[in-house]
């Protein structure tokens, strides 16, 4: 099932769009295919910057992958928020972590169990997925970052370079004073340090990045090394590819396989 809906979000103070995929039962009688007691494991799937909630359905095989693994998929609108409660904009993280799951689980047959809840995304969305996992480890079984922008300090350093004035303004809208972001609630590395005190309570974490992606050297490898230095277990890989949907399509399939295995653990 492919569903597009709009509803008013109190956290965002505006109407917002969501795309939802539900597994389509493949067998049974016409009257008996749909089980009213079914509750599906759910992937909250987050788009990257300068995109929208339709990106995965337009540019990947997400519907086919969701059907293969029996996942429901919720794809919310995140604008250019970096999935934070913006300093100069809507409270996207509060919406994503509180209001959206409550709304989706009230309207659709989604499982509320931690073991059945996952987060994933590409680029900015990979960052958002890890923000969810590290801020709400009691509510997510696993998270996947596909070419994610996980090192906040590296993002801000890029924004301060000549020629990156538009990027600097975008990050300032999200985080406010960029000199005060390090170590705060939107700093993924700081959250990882905090969670390292009890790694057994962490969701399972998966990272992947294309070998030809500029983030492979500046984000992926340093973040993997950072996690290893903390003793935090992460599953990571890489494959030929750039910062594009040719890479993210295959990465998404690997992430769904990772989630299916996490459910069995």
Structure description:
The chain is α/β, with parallel strands linked by helices and 265 residues long. It has one domain: Alpha/Beta hydrolase fold, catalytic domain (Rossmann fold, 3-Layer(aba) Sandwich). Helices cover 39% and strands 18% of the residues. The chain has an 8-stranded mixed sheet with strand order 1-2-4-3-5-6-7-8, with helices on both faces. Helix 2 packs parallel to helix 9 and helix 4 (124-135) runs parallel beside helix 7 (188-195).
Number of strands: 8
Approximately how much beta-strand content do the residues carry? Answer: 15-25%
* Helix content range: 25-40%
| Count of DSSP-assigned helices | 9
Unreliable spans: none
List the helices and strands and how they pair.
Layout: E1 2-9, E2 14-21, E3 42-46, H1 55-59, H2 62-69, E4 72-76, H3 92-107, E5 117-122, H4 124-135, E6 142-146, H5 152-159, H6 165-175, H7 188-195, E7 204-210, H8 215-230, E8 235-239, H9 245-264
Parallel strand pairs: 3-4, 3-5, 5-6, 6-7, 7-8
Antiparallel strand pairs: 1-2, 2-4
